[in-house]
């Protein structure tokens, strides 16, 4: 009866470590599938369960692959291929019989680790991959050096990775960068944004509890006050009676506009699957690959499917100039509907001559008629604007923006709705703003003769705290996040928040200097500073850095090689020669090309009664001669075992 295979548990442990991130990315049944068959392979290796039949293993492969295809709607997307790899890796340990099977399983583990880069490139992913590579390399070492313990294998694995680190860093800095990103799957399910090309009551309020990050902003100077942090994304021009739509006929922006205050900043935009960028009102120009439209929105030529970093300059105190002919769309309304709102707006226009007075009258109406700010607005019926203004009188920012823009148009004042974000959370560890999906907001712009397009936020009248303290502070107590509803949870959240900020700072630095280390950033790094000005000097510095890294890596490798080199002694080979002569008396002599392990296996097959003693002597000799060595006591023990070994012919 065969003994238990001690390599299989180590291999399965490496597989489990490598597959940890997939428990939340792949369908749940694939995780259970992997755990079940890995557990069964572990029991089979310990001889506590019978090995599966070959026909059963062959039947499980197509069954698992069909299940993966069905879980992904029969499409060959990135998740499909990764799921198929997980199925194959889960079944491979069931057929481990030889050393070759073990090596193939470990190599598949490396492939499984590599696929993590197709999803996430965060600092945590890099740490997990380092741990996974270390454990898989330790399993590989154990397969080839069975005599050592697992702690020694892990130490050797860490040493190998440290020896490769200097050259890895230098090659990362100096090796020419490819254009674009090599890694990354476009997965629409991961895109998160609060806006589409249509806006209806309830669209933005659904995001109030989404704490995901929309983008980060690093200002080239002081951070403006909260009342200036309006992040423009999309402008809605057409009112359909039920909601608002973007106008695709907006022309590109040409010329400049008058302004007195400017601010520069860099935005790191998370992928959201749409084409618009977000900017502080009002952007002056558009960097490539985006274009600036005449309503001051930034549109990319391609959908935002990966993190995008861009630098802008915006103007705050401004006059946008006269109205253009195409902007007459800001006065259009359906011919019928919402008669109450139309009558109210016409009453203001008859009473006031100046458009600024009409705007003030509309804001006063919202302030004095018990409107409330809530995430749970009463459903609207019939003419939605009238129903909101005269019956429900509760809603989120899109309700107020929609009603206010309608009133302005009914009073013959051009108006449009702007969708974007308001505010941001300053990270004290990096002095940059974090804008989250819960900061999504909608406001109104009206055209006034004295200032051009002017921002008017009706939400600021209903919930002033929304502007300075964020959406959570403006909501009723029952609708606030759970960490604000309890004094103890609020205290815990206050201590947990700095940890979140610190981790976000680490991830941001990783994204900027590692994931975002593009060809242009490499050029900036290698050409910055006085010492980098001369091309010849840059070449010489690059050669010196590369040579130093190679020397450091070789030094570490040589040091580790000397430390782990096997003990070369005269006594062990001499004792083994005597051992081989004794075995030659009872079987065929050892062939010159035959290794000690193969020779021992051959003799043990012919003489099972001597198998245990032959195996003990051979293992001790292999460790002394080819392993990481032993001490004088092992040499004496080998000599004693060989001297006491006196086989007799049958």
Question: If you had to describe this structure to a student in words, what would you say it looks like?
Answer:
By secondary structure, the chain is of the alpha+beta class. The strands form five sheets. Strands 1, 3, 4, 8, 15, 18 and 19 form a seven-stranded antiparallel beta sheet that branches. The chain has a five-stranded antiparallel beta sheet with strand order 11-6-2-17-16, covered by helices on one side. A three-stranded antiparallel beta sheet has the order 7-10-9, with no helix packed on it. Strand 18 and strand 19 form a beta hairpin. Helix 3 packs parallel to helix 5 (78-91), helix 11 (384-392) crosses helix 12 and helix 22 packs antiparallel against helix 23. The longest helix is centred in the last third of the chain and has 30 residues, at 535-564. The two termini are 24 Å apart. Mean pLDDT is 84; it is low at 182-186 and 529-533.
List the helices and strands and how they pair.
Layout: H1 7-19, H2 22-25, H3 28-45, H4 54-71, H5 78-91, H6 99-114, H7 123-144, H8 150-174, E1 198-199, E2 213-219, E3 230-239, E4 244-246, E5 258-259, E6 262-269, E7 276-277, E8 279-280, E9 290-292, E10 298-300, E11 308-315, E12 318-319, H9 339-351, H10 355-368, E13 372-373, H11 384-392, E14 394-395, H12 397-410, E15 415-422, E16 425-427, E17 432-436, E18 440-448, E19 452-456, H13 459-462, H14 465-469, H15 471-474, H16 482-485, H17 487-515, H18 519-527, H19 535-564, H20 571-584, H21 596-606, H22 611-625, H23 632-644
